[in-house]
Amino acid sequence: MKRFSAAAAAAALALAAAACSDTGNGGEATSMEDENAESITVWHTGDASQQPMLDAAGALFEDETGVKVEVEIIDWADAHTKILTAIQSGDGPDVFTGGLSWGIEFGELGGLVDLRQYETENLESNVIDGLWQSIESPGGELYGVPLNMTTYAMFYRSDILAENGLEVPATWDEMDAAITQL
Questions:
Q1: Could you tell me if 66 and 122 lie in one domain?
Q2: Nearest 5°: CA angle at 58, between 68 and 132?
Q3: For the chain, N or C: smaller number of CB within 10 Å?
Q4: Separation in Å, CA 154 to CA 94, 129, 173, 175
């Protein structure tokens, strides 16, 4: 699983790195080859526990391209403001991770490149529909790709449901009704 995660992250880095730009013009992409890039900077929103996986993905990317990946972990509490400030100043990372809606928000501000100009055709078929809808802008632009597709789980207390004459909810409406009753 760790090997798969590193490979998936490396693929995401490879796609996003194709959009590197330090022109300061927001949204005008040049390729790493055009810029003769020796390294790319990634701001990862999260915590230090994710650093080993990102370093491994960066190493895979460097092995493939010769381009070094420099990862900086940024805290969720500061990330949105830090990235927004970087976009406004034209001096930010080549790639960042963050909230799902950030790609659309920052892309519409002119701070990100529409990735549709690159080979992204296979992405949509490999992303959960609801997740895809949250990353595609209303105009159809694609400013980011999922770093992962976490599966969420809900746990329940069967004893409490039974005490209240409730079955385990199978739909959102049933869950809403059970919560209301409880």
A1: yes
A2: 125
A3: N
A4: 36, 20, 15, 11
Judge whether 140 lies within some domain: no
Is 113 inside a domain boundary? yes
Q: How do residues 56-111 score in pLDDT, each as one tens digit? A: 999 999 999 999 999 999 999 999 999 999 999 988 999 999 988 899 999 999 98
Specify the number of domains making up the chain: 2
Which H or E run includes 95? strand 95-96
Threshold 0.85, pTM exceeds: no
From CA 175, how far away is CA 158, in angstroms rounded? 13
CATH number, residue 128? 3.40.190
- The 10s digit of each residue's pLDDT in 3-59 is 444 444 444 444 444 344 444 344 455 555 566 789 999 999 998 999 999 999 999
